[in-house]
Amino acid sequence: MYLKTLLTSLITLASFYTPSALSLESDAGAEITIQSDRAEFDRKAGTAIYMGNVILEQGTLLINADKITLISDEQQRLNKAIAEGKPAHFQQLMEGDKGLTKARGHSITYLTQEKHVSLLTEAVLEQEGNSFSGNHIIYDMVNESVSAKGQTESHVTPTGEQPSGRIKMIIQPAKPVENATNEDA
Fold first, then answer.
1. Residue 37: which CATH number?
2. pLDDT by residue (tens digit) across 57-69?
3. For residue range 33-45, what is the model confidence (pLDDT) as tens digits?
4. Are β-strands 78-93 and 61-72 bridged in parallel, bridged antiparallel, or unpaired?
5. CB of 70 within 8 A of CB of 48?
6. Rounded Cα distance, 24 and 1, in Å
7. Is residue 81 part of a domain?
8. Which of 101, 115, 116, 144 is buried most deeply by CB count within 10 Å?
9. Are 153 and 159 in contact (CB under 8 A)?
């Protein structure tokens, strides 16, 4: 019985990610706009650090955080964005009908070339009503895969609750496929 339930869950999970789950291609070519209270730049190292209510926008990509560190290559192309907050927020519109993907965590690392988002500490990833939560989540936008880990240690919350430390997935039922009708017949 357990194996049948596990297989059904895995099949449902596999249907959660379809080939259209990539971010909008136009986002990569869009300008980056950043607002913050303070900033530090090191052109030689290719780093820029923004602090204090930071808002980063690029096309449909939006990151809100207390601190964002941007790391660029020699051609000044953004390679990595590290957002830190309690929590930091990430959202981006996906291709096709996937809608908005939202994520949050105390640390969010976005690898622009690989299209990976890594979420740490109280991490949550949401798309189309489906969600993953755990201590560490890695979302691979290209391969449409999610890897999640729970906490290795349980800490008592301020309300006295002891979290399970396990990951949690909420998966919506598959949408029924509409039968195509032939109106010419």
1. 2.60.450.10
2. 988 889 999 999 9
3. 999 999 999 988 9
4. antiparallel
5. yes
6. 41
7. yes
8. 101
9. no
**What does residue 82 show for φ and ψ, rounded to 5 degrees?**
-115, 115
| 57 domain residue, yes or no | yes
Nearest Cα to 49, choosing from 60, 58, 36, 62? 36
Contacts of 169 (CB under 8 A, 6+ apart): 13, 130, 131, 132, 133, 148
**Residue at 176 is within a domain:** no
List residues bridging with 78 in a β-sheet: 72
Residue 14 counted as domain residue = no
- Measured between alpha carbons, how far is 149 from 133 in angstroms, rounded to an integer? 9
Contact 140, 20 (CB under 8 A): no
* Tokens standing for residue 64: 């809100």
Are 54 and 35 spatial neighbours (Cβ–Cβ below 8 Å)?
Answer: yes
Q: Give the chain's domain count.
A: 1
Q: Quick check: 58 and 33 in contact, CB under 8 A? A: yes
Cis peptide before 173 (omega within 30 of 0): no
Alpha helical stretches, state H, the chain: 2-16, 25-29
Q: How many residues does the chain have?
A: 185
Gap between the Cα atoms of 53 and 35, Å rounded: 8
